[in-house]
Amino acid sequence: MAKKVSVDVDGRRLGLSNLDKVLYPEHGTTKGEVIDYYTRIAPVLLPHLADRPLTRKRWPDGVAAGSFFEKNAPRGTPDWVRTVELPSPGSTRGTETVTYVVCEDLPTLVWLANLAVLEMHVPQWRVDGDEARNPDRLVLDLDPGAPANVIECCQVALILAEALADDGLLSYPKTSGSKGMQMYVALDGDAEVDAVHGYARRLAERLEKEHPRLVVSRMEKRLRPGKVLVDWSQNNATKTTVAPYSLRGREQPTVSTPVTWDEVEQAARSNARTRLPLRFDYQDTLARVADDGDLMAPLHNEAHALPGG
């Protein structure tokens, strides 16, 4: 391949470079294939990124080399890329604001992929102009402590889904693309972030009391072996969660992939220990979307009231 090519993406002229650079050495996946994946998955990915300040994780020399998180829009950001300036309380760099990229169209997505952005992380709230709205998502991150794995995560997910349903909240699961899972609930935006954060924490603490051999709600690593951490802190205003359909910077080009509750139930009963269930690479995910569409699409239309909010 040529070192640099010029392409037209929805009317924007982009220069793409080093398309043959291998970003996943164990799998052989190149930057060109990463760009192709993000181009093809864009119709279902972009709605999950829309109006959300984007934190990116980049691997310029591939996943076997170093990576870095990036919040501020980089130098040379095209003027047609949407950005939003937001307060940055407690910044370690001493800056009062961060200028985030907001990825809401295909040219921006391709531009980011060309920068070797593999992972895309977003908060549970959207922006209106330069103002952050109340959360419109509640997220529970299920993180297994070895020897627990995704099987135990599925068992906890089923318990959580029932508890959320008892409170009138419909939840949607996805893999993290790494070891665990996340569960999402669409909120109506009436509850402030502290209320959402508090509800998630109380729910996690209650499940820890009810299922002490399986669930832990506290962050101390010494408490986590063999259990699943229900990480309620993802609902903090400063936290982000990997977006649905984002690649992960692991040895293999796995994806944070929405799954059905039937798949979760089947995995929860699995005895597999060598080939774990619910692990999808980018080719698997593209095939799933071609067959079933976006399993998390209802999040864009639902709006649940937070209990007690």
Description of the molecule:
The structure is a single chain. The chain is an alpha+beta fold and 309 residues long. It folds into two domains: 4-133, DNA primase, PRIM domain; 134-300, Alpha-Beta Plaits (2-Layer Sandwich). Helix content is 27%, strand content 26%. It is built from six helices and 17 strands. The strands form five sheets. Strands 5, 6, 7, 8, 9 and 17 form a six-stranded antiparallel beta sheet that branches. Strands 13-14-12-16-15 form a five-stranded mixed beta sheet, with helices on one face. The protein has a two-stranded antiparallel sheet with strand order 1-2. A hairpin with a 2-residue loop joins strand 10 (125-128) and strand 11. Helix 1 packs across helix 2 (106-114), helix 1 (31-49) crosses helix 6 and helix 3 (150-166) crosses helix 5 (261-268). The longest helix is centred in the N-terminal third of the chain and has 19 residues, at 31-49. The chain is globular and about 55 Å long. The termini are far apart. The mean pLDDT is 95.
Topology, element by element:
Elements (H helix, E strand, L loop, with lengths): L3 E6 L2 E6 L4 E3 L4 E2 H19 L3 E6 L9 E3 L12 E5 L9 E6 L3 H9 L2 E6 L2 E4 L2 E5 L1 E8 L5 H17 L4 E5 L5 E6 L6 H18 L4 E2 L11 E4 L9 E2 L18 H8 L13 H11 L17
Helix pairs in contact: 1-2, 1-6, 3-5
